[in-house]
Amino acid sequence: MSRKNFHDLLARYLEGKCTAEENETVEQWYKMLDDEKVGFTREELSSVENRLWTKISSQFKEIPDQPEATLPVYQFFAGKRSMVGRAAALAGFVVAISMLFFYSKQKNPDFNVAVKNESVVHFINKSATPEPIYLQDGSYVLLKPGSALTYPKHFARQKREVYLTGEGYFLISKNPARPFLVYNNNTITRVVGTSFIISSDAETHKTEVSVQTGRVIVTENIEENLIKTVLGKKAEVILTPNQKTTYNSEQQRFTTTLVAAPLPVLKHNETLNKADFVFNEAPVSTVLKALEKMYAIEIIAAKEVNEATFTGDINGMDLYSKLDLICQSIHAGYQISGTKIYINKSIN
């Protein structure tokens, strides 16, 4: 953790902009100073920062040339005496936990230990068009130009793992006994059988996961994050059709919303019935329920909106065009918040 990051964290703490985990970390640090009062003011920030940094730096030093470049390793300075007091040991443990909150190691697929083995494929799409990849279990990946996929020729019995760099569309064969995991630098996406898109950008430090069908669980790609493990607050997002999440590795935070162009969610062998989307003086509540079912998206409308009526044919339109037409006819407006759509009467 750099001195600048350390300063920024303390400043965010004063402004009330820290996450719960960061708040607890700062408060654990502050206890190391043995001050009688609780907390500190902006005027005391510089003094507290210097004292804390000196305290932490005096107990740890970085070990150079470690094989795991993503995980700086720290050790205690050796003291003159072999016995260390309980209070010092406890303070050291608090610091160790706090430092590991910021320095975490990425988790890789199990097959990576044999990456030089002929049983592992590393494919880079060097063409100008998406390249299809057919996996041993019947799953399918459409790999975007410039992207790469590392995968075993034969999956393990317990799980199916691949490593993605860049962007790919995944259509996964259903097998509840063997979950499918997609790793990248920032996240691990876990599915049983579904279709989704994963896109990562090294420059913005962001990874986006969009779901078309099924259910997907997305977690941070962090193997050792002791603060979050102890507190039970490791970031995780569950996505359903037409939802997407964006993970920012710098902020260690997920932002979840709807995809830009939601698609109809159809069950196996189900087709759309055009008659279901032709309305004649129908209550708007009935129209919205039909859209909720079609797109698997929750739509929340004000009472006066639900009680209005709508006449029209909304076949052949995307979801947002449908909503535009409905809202225009009843003088209402809609907004997207998270994974829900809210509709209210317009104020003239």
From TrEMBL:
Residues 276-343 form the Protein FecR C-terminal domain. The chain crosses the membrane at residues 84-103. One of its GO terms (molecular function) is sigma factor antagonist activity. Keywords: Membrane, Transmembrane, Transmembrane helix. Residues 133-216 form the FecR protein domain. InterPro entries: FecR, FecR_C, Ferrdict_sens_TM. This is DUF4974 domain-containing protein. It comes from Mucilaginibacter arboris. The lineage of its organism: Bacteria, Pseudomonadati, Bacteroidota, Sphingobacteriia, Sphingobacteriales.
